[in-house]
Every structure is written in C-alpha cells, then in structure tokens.
Amino acid sequence: MLKHAIVIFISLFLIGYAAASPGQIRPYSGCGVLIVQPLNPDRPGDTGPVPFYREPGVARIAELSAGEIPSLSSVLTMSAGEYALAVMEKKGNWLRIAYDDAGREGWVEKARWWDYTTWEVFLKGRFVRLLAGLKKTACTLRERPAETAPQSGMLSGREGLKIIAVEDNWVMVIADSGLHGWLPWRDGDGRFLISVDVNPGL
C-alpha cells in the first residue's frame, strides 16, 4: 500500500513539474546583430578566442570561443561556421553581449572581419515566419505600425512573409497569401516573434 502511494506521489510530482516547465524561451533581440565569422574561410567555425570585458577595454571577465556564446540560432539560420549574436548596446567599436545562458553580459571589441548591423537594416528584404505558439495579437496585421491601428488581415500557421519596411518593433510584410500590413517582430520585452531565413533556398 505504501509502495503504491509513493509511486502515485512521484508520478503526480513529475506531471506537475512537466506542466510547470516553460517552453523554449524566445531570445532577446537587443539593438542589432553581430555576425561572428572565421578569420580564415578555409577553417569554418574557427573564430579564435573572444575576450569579454566588464567595461570597454577594462577588466577582462571571460574568454570564450564563438560557439560557446549564446547565439540566435533558434531564430536565425546562418551559414556553417558563422554565429549570430544579439547586441544589447554599442559604443564605438565595442559591443555589449550576453556571454552565458544566465544572461550575464560583457563588452567585446568588434573584429574587422565581423559584421554588425542594426535590426532596421538587417531585417529589410528578409523572408521570415512567425514563431509557433504566439498569441492572436502577434498574428494580426495592422494598417499602421500600432496596436490600436485597424486590422488588415490575420495570418495563419507558418505562412511565409517578406519584410518590406521596418519601424521600431514593427515590420511591414507581404504574406504568401497576398495579405500585407504591419506586424510586430518582437514583443514589449524585446523578445523575437519571428524567425529569419538568412540564406533562403539553401
């Protein structure tokens, strides 16, 4: 009897734990994206050590390979050997980036063969899709880039979208179905609502 009670208790605990466990966390977008590329194209993935500082050029706090740094791989598809990193702040040639899964941040000096781009420039002309499991409001097209603007359509499923223009947290898109309008590409906390196909057709 006691044995059965223990089994039931453990089963209920595990069910409750699974129900309480959050899904995959959408990454933060920051102010732009840093594409870390290998110095030697013949050695993809070999980016060398990336040193992090507490302040730009002051007090080194970590040194990691690009593959160890939390990337945007869940929302950006990159070429082999390239790593897309969200940049939270930029000061000249220095970029503030999260260097571990706990969200701790440090400053990195941009190498000349790396590429930093603001989201406004990076997203324009890209093909994207909405992430799964979003609220209805995130799938609603608007006539203007504002939540209070009239609706111009509702997207369904994993419909392909092309970004025509970018304005702050909003993008103007044309859907595969022909629908068009403004859509939020990140939420109020700065987390992604879309995935971006950087290399369509590959």
Quick structural overview:
The protein has 202 residues and is mainly β. The model is unreliable at 2-23 (pLDDT under 50).
Can you walk me through this structure?
With 202 residues, the protein is mainly β. The chain folds into two domains: 32-121, no CATH class; 124-197, SH3 type barrels (Roll). 12% of the residues lie in helices and 38% in strands. The protein contains two helices and 16 strands. The strands form five sheets. A six-stranded mixed β-sheet has the order 4-16-10-13-14-15. A hairpin with a 2-residue loop joins strand 2 and strand 3 (58-65). It is elongated. The model is unreliable at 2-23 (pLDDT under 50).
Can you give the helix content as a percent range? 10-25%
Cα-to-Cα separation, first versus last residue: 59 Å
Strand order of the largest sheet: 4-16-10-13-14-15
SSE order: HEEEEEEEEEHEEEEEEE
CA-atom Rg in angstroms: 21 Å
Total number of helices: 2
Low-confidence blocks of residues: 2-23
Give the biggest sheet. Answer: 6 strands, mixed
How much of the residues is beta strand, in percent?
35-45%
CA-based shape:
elongated
Classification by helices and strands: mainly beta
Structurally, the number of domains stands at 2
